[in-house]
């Protein structure tokens, strides 16, 4: 039981705590193409992961306090298979042949199952000394994490590079997640920071409603936020493919 609780907590703990997406869904200036992520996408993924976590939080936790240091660690975690950060959970969006955004998505039970592999990945990527420095920072996030229903499809993070926001990239990525969840008749859940009003409005337009609120002094210490909100979307069963340009 304790192991299961830790698995759930950790899957949530490393989930995105801010969704930097545009509040407006403007017509796409260029076609958005979706594809599965690959290990060689790690450079672009490192930048997007830091955007998703917010630079301050990414550097404080995964960069161990060093400014900009999180990128290389997040790149290496992304390139490993079978963990909570792995490329095999990720759909990428490309605009004009360049990575513009990405979304991680999977059933909550699958994320919980990856807990042990993720801990081993941290140890290998950071090394023993840095790993033990990392643990107290991760625990702060774990303790600040409300639960997600076991039967939900979960979105750990959705991130779009600043220059591509407002052009339909986030909308296309989110629709791909909904297709996957609806095939399994599953609801979807995600988290947003309380102060991220643009993200909350974006997800409400996509059919999400406010659910569990968690106020946390630990999150305030790490990311300067008073807490975060879980948002849920019911399974609709009528998701449609996002444009003819979307590719598997």
Explain what you see.
This protein is α+β, with helices and mostly antiparallel strands and 248 residues long. Strands 1-2-3-4-5-7-6 form a seven-stranded mixed sheet, with helices on both faces. Helix 7 links the parallel strand 4 and strand 5. The longest helix is centred in the middle third of the chain and has 29 residues. It is globular, with a radius of gyration of 17 Å. The chain starts with a helix and ends in a 15-residue tail after the last strand.
Over all CA atoms, what is the radius of gyration?
17 Å
Estimate percent helicity. 40-55%
Q: In what range is the share of β-strand residues?
A: 15-25%
Number of helices: 9
- What class do helices, strands and sheet pairing give? alpha+beta
In total, the number of strands is 7
> What separation lies between the terminal Cα atoms?
37 Å
Low-confidence stretches: 1-29, 238-248
Q: What's the order of the H and E elements?
A: HEHHHEEHHEHEHEHE
Give the overall form: globular
Strand order of the largest sheet: 1-2-3-4-5-7-6
- Sheet of most strands: 7 strands, mixed
Return the average pLDDT rounded to an integer: 80
Descriptors for this entry?
248 residues, alpha+beta, 7-stranded mixed beta sheet, 9 helices, disordered C terminus
What is the compact description of this entry?
The protein is an alpha+beta fold and 248 residues long.
Task: Map the helices and strands.
Elements: H1 2-13, E1 32-36, H2 42-53, H3 55-61, H4 70-78, E2 90-95, E3 98-107, H5 108-113, H6 115-143, E4 153-160, H7 169-183, E5 188-193, H8 197-205, E6 209-215, H9 217-223, E7 227-233
Parallel strand pairs: 4-5
Antiparallel strand pairs: 1-2, 2-3, 3-4, 5-7, 6-7
Helix pairs in contact: 1-6, 2-3, 2-4
């Amino acid at each position: 039981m304790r192991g299961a609780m830790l698995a759930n907590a950790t899957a949530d703990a490393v989930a995105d705590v801010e969704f930097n997406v545009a509040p407006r869904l403007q017509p796409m200036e260029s076609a958005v193409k979706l594809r599965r992520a690959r290990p060689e996408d790690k450079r672009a993924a490192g930048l997007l992961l830091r955007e998703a976590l917010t630079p301050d939080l990414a550097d404080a936790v995964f960069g161990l306090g060093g400014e900009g240091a999180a990128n290389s660690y997040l790149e290496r975690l992304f390139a490993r298979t079978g963990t909570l950060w792995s490329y095999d959970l990720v759909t990428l969006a490309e605009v004009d042949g360049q990575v513009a955004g990405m979304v991680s998505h999977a059933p909550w039970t699958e994320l919980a199952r990856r807990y042990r592999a993720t801990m081993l990945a941290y140890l290998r990527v950071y090394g023993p000394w840095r790993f033990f420095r990392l643990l107290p920072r991760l625990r702060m996030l774990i303790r600040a994490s409300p639960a997600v229903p076991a039967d939900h499809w979960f979105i750990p993070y959705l991130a779009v590079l600043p220059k591509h926001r407002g052009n339909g990239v986030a909308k296309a990525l989110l629709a791909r997640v909904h297709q996957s969840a609806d095939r399994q008749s599953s609801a979807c859940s995600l988290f947003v920071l309380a102060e991220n009003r643009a993200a909350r409005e974006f997800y409400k337009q996509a059919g999400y409603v406010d659910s569990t609120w968690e106020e946390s002094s630990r999150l305030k210490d790490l990311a300067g936020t008073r807490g975060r909100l879980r948002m849920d979307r019911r399974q609709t069963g009528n998701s449609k493919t996002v444009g003819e340009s979307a590719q598997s």
